[in-house]
Sequence to fold (1191 residues):
Amino acid sequence: MKKNLSFFAFIHVLILLLSISTVSAQWTTTGPEGGFIKCMTRSGSTLYVVTNGVGRAIYSSNDNGNTWTYLSSPTLPTDIRAIAIIGDMMFLGTGSGLYRSDDAGASWVLKTNGFPDGGNWVNQLAVSDTTLFAAATSSKMLRSTDYGETWTIKNTGLTCNDIYALVATETAIFTGGGSNKKGVFRSTNNGDSWQQVVTGMAYWFQNGWVQGYYPNVQSLGFNGTDLYVGSNSFQGIWKSSDNGAHWVLTNPATRTNQWYNAISGDGNTIFAASLINGVFTSTDQGATWSAANNGIDIYHNARTIFLNEGTVFAGTKAGLYRTNDNGANWTKTCTGLNGHGTAFSGILTVGTDMFVGTTYGGVYRSSDAGNLWTAVNNGLPMNVNLSYNTAIYSNSTTLFGYDLMSTDHGDNWIPIVTPGDYVSGMGMPWTEHGTYLFASNSTNNPGVHRSMDNGQTWELVNNGFDPNTLSFGQVSSDGTNLYIETDMGYYYSSDNGNTWNLGVFPLDIFVGTRIASINSARILGIGGEWGQRGIFRTTDNGANWVQVNDFLVHKFIVSGNKIWASGTNLEVINGNEIEVPSIFLSQDEGQNWTKISGAISVSTYSIAAENDNIYVATYSPVFDVFRSSDNGNSWISISDGLNPNTEVSTLNIINNKLFAGTQGHSVWQRNLSDFVAPAQPDQIIGSETPCIGSSQTYSVTNVSGVTYNWQFPSGWIITAGNGTHSVTVTVGSTGGVIAVTPSNGFGTGPSQFLVVSPAQTVEATVSIVADQTSVCEGTSVLFTATPVNGGETPVYQWYVNGIESGENNPVFTYIPVNNDIVSLQLTSSIGCVTNNPVQSNTIQIEVTSPTDAVSVTINIDQSNICEGSLVTFTATPLNGGETPAYQWYVNGVASGTNSPVFGYVPTHNDVVYVVLTSSISCVINNPAQSDPITLQVTTAIEVTASISVDQNDLCEGSEMTFFASTSGGGTEPSYEWLINGTSAGVNAESFSFIPENGDAISLVFTSSEWCTAQNPVTSNTLVAIVNALPEVSWNYTDPTTVCIEDWGPITLTGGLPEGGTYTGDGVTGNIFNQAVAGVGNHIITYSYIDANNCSAQAQIEFIVDACLGITETANGLFVYPNPASDNFTIKLNNQNIVGVNLYNTMGIRVYSNPSVKTSGITVPVQNLQSGNYILKVTSDHETFVKTVMIK
Fold:
């Protein structure tokens, strides 16, 4: 026999004729979100993440991971293992080499010039400045200094047998890995040579450190300037603080984790991603480590740690998580990131719920036809099991996955309880048959077990064979009969397992059967187990089987009267027997089979069917999804909308939708109703009245995958685009209907129509004229166009010396230079014009240069300007002509009139200039602008004056003083006081005089400042209020000359008006005591104060005579002389003087001697003023008071 080779190694040599077309169907991604996070990087504010364990997709985020967008590219390679960025260039390390993108991932180019033969796997990438390092197959370190264009092997000194980690700074590159215990290597010369840097390192083995062997490096990363190594094989986390020269184990407890896939720090916190136990953090430079998985639901196989400006990302096998609090809390950040892989049996339903089993992320459930998905992993070993494939299976009520089951739609997973020890090829521990469950066991209680109460109790049903002599395989049901695989044959039961019969079968079979039922026939397929294969058929419920084909069966699908089988067919290709993945079809209940898959590379488990339609996915080198509705005679590609290079691992039809589970792109869906003939195209776009002989384009909205058949009236010729949605034609003279008919692989749709009427053509012309052709330099010229057959909305394009100028307007104005040539191009709006656009005549302009220059100067009438003052400007023109025009400007705003003189009241910093337009026809610099004058306006000082008076409402004869309160007076102000409007002749701040009642007093105040708001100013006016004095008289009729001793006190009377007061020497009240007053002349005054508090007096002079001298009292007190000038003597008869006191008329004591103790004393008075004094003498027994007079 020819050598049997795998078909997969030679698929690229198959060149078979096959009718394949594409359709417009569009797939949409439905989730679930998440997926295996392979690696991450950043360019500016854009994050990039590679998903799936074999790197099948790249997503980008511009909002720090809140949302993600798939980076679509038809040239994106698969099996992405590393990603790096230099400037605007992106690099991918893949299983097929190094790829570069210069357009943000839109396209990728393989860059492997210099790679060793067979060494195209690139597992690690690192960037040092602009140098790119790539760790390739067989420990080859490759370096590129020209952005990947060429590569050089740089292995000098590098002895590790595989490279698992690579990190670079601007001055050093570090690497390590392998399984030969070589530790870390460093290069400080850009990779030219490598040195092993392992001082302080050793290898832990059997409870001790083995010197000379070093940890295998799984990851490298920096925290500040400290370099950390995450090892594999339980060797812990190591740290170097001196650029790799010396190493220490951070903590022995770190050796409890098998692998550390990634490690990095933000200067404060170090993050390490482990294979088994998720993320660990250290906040003390690695001295202690703590698990930090709060919020990471599936932390198993954490592969990525990435820091982005305060945010830390951790990627695990199930998705991407983010923390902003140093790992204390994590949130899943997978919106838009659809990176899950789907198991081959991954999409199914239980009741109305859909379920998908992912390759790493567990099981998800959807209750709304796949729009939203919820993880249902409670009880599944998501963080304790490294299983690659979460394949799930189900019967009508129960889900099965791993070695667990769920009877509550995935909410909880519990261990499977069954007496069977065989799990079927569908992953189920038992088989449903009607209301029964069946399981098989070959060791403990061998045979077939049956449950009639949904698995609560089981019984053996072995009637028909000896279970102790057989090994049992899968129990199968076709809905009517049961079948059991054994090593001695194929048994069947037609009575729910009560009895078993051995069927007649061409082969000895044990396991690997697939069974299908179609009408009265049962079809059994063998999938290659134990080297057995073929399709077998029975029509007597399994009693007798006949082999009808040698196909190796993976899967049967029955729809109507058709049955499809997928698997591999043994074919001879280029002299070798090859297992070719294929699809076979039987339309006669399995008697005859025909291969229908042609040359497509069938993915034999990714197949589905409905009615007469079969759907199948293909795999490398071309990932696609095809549909055939004509028994495989033609296959239509229906992959439009799927991400490029998407491998579909499972196809399922659920609720009139086709679902595709993928490897690394989650689940996609589309409606079965999409697979129909195209709908009628929308309105045909194009002219309904085209010009005969013109070239026209007609189109409809393009629908991908649709072919368009165009029909035009007689004489029209299609010149481009035939068969597409847009065609170009040459218009004939015949009118009629344009029709376009759509078609695709599913049929022909209704046509769309457009009625057209071709139009005859006319000739367009245009001429132009100028208002002048000989002008002075700087003069505008007006051009006017006159069109013929220009239509209602013609387009005018003016040209000056062949250069486009002006606006779309029939008139054009500009300032020409000498010999300018002006022309016009007219584009008529009439549909059919023979010469469209059309050129006008040309006009040449003669321009004369002026000889005299126009200028103007301006002068101002004052240099110091006070606020509010009127200033006048005068313009002096040069070459202004007889009638020049003046336009004055203030702060750029036109002002004044056409005059050489301009006056106005300015404000500070106003800028004034004039523009002079000369009346001379051809001059230079016309119009001319004067130099501007910036006005310095002094702010006017406000002058104020007010007056006040010290007192008013006075009595006649009183003096009033007025005071001025002023501001803005300057250094030498002037005061003019006015009395009843007449100047008082006083120039002072205050003014005093004795007014009369009703006098009006005011002030005219003149400031000495030169710039004032008002000057002089007049103050307020004050009116004097003067009250008349009362009329006082004193009619006294008694004598006014009295003796000092012989007269008693005199009562004073006769003062008018009554109610006044008497004052004078010796007066108390209205009593005049002459003895008190003393000898001499005394003026006594009578004073009266009226209601206005004004007073007047009347006076009488009293004369007090000694009349023989002053007589003493009988008690013996003698005072002499009295009056006295120098001193006087006091004597007292018959008793001693104890004390003497002398008081003036104010009651002030002027002399005192409190201890005389004699009968006589002399009192000196020469220093006292003249006047009356009161003498007080105290004796042993009494006190004397006497008036004395001092001269």
Q: What stands out?
A: DSSP finds one helix and 118 strands in the chain.
